[in-house]
Amino acid sequence: MTERESGLERSVGFVMGVTYRKLSMLLQQRLKPFDITPEQWSVLVHVARSDGLIQKEIAELAGKDKPTTTRILDHLEGKGLIVKQTGEADRRSFLVHITDKGKALIERTAPIERGLLQDVKQCMTDEEYDRLLDLLRRIERHANLLKDRE
């Protein structure tokens, strides 16, 4: 099958997926000494930014489904990076809080993520980067509308 026949090279989803996996692998390599995966790190950052959220809110912010978020939170809790506290209004939900150990890990690893961002930005201008983010956010909003229609 030729490139033209497959159409994958012109598929936004395919190209974004390949790019995401490559960037994720780079971040994973750089985070490896800290015993945290990019998925865990991104959830931990959301917990740090909005301490005291429930799992559902964290899942929405991180763009992950509830079972995946539960699994990640369980790993983070096992590592002592977060603690879960039973919600007062709804005993079935847990408020998630970052620990001092989690805060320290974010402080040590945030420069790694910023460094990867700087490495990526070397292949484009600041204007192109801003435009890329705008386009990706537009695609995300449109995908949400399509999902809501189904």
From TrEMBL:
MF annotations from Gene Ontology: DNA binding; DNA-binding transcription factor activity
Q: Where are the transmembrane segments?
A: none
Q: Which UniProt keywords apply?
A: DNA-binding, Transcription, Transcription regulation
Boundaries of each HTH marR-type domain copy? 9-141
UniProt key word Transcription regulation: yes
Domain of life, source organism: Bacteria
InterPro entries listed in its UniProt record: HTH_MarR-typ (IPR000835), MarR/SlyA-like (IPR039422), WH-like_DNA-bd_sf (IPR036388), WH_DNA-bd_sf (IPR036390)
Gene Ontology biological process terms, A to Z: response to stress
Coiled-coil parts of chain? none
Which Gene3D superfamilies does the protein's record reference? Winged helix-like DNA-binding domain superfamily/Winged helix DNA-binding domain (1.10.10.10)
Pfam entry (one)? MarR_2
Name of this chain's protein: MarR family transcriptional regulator
Organism for this UniProt entry: Paenibacillus flagellatus
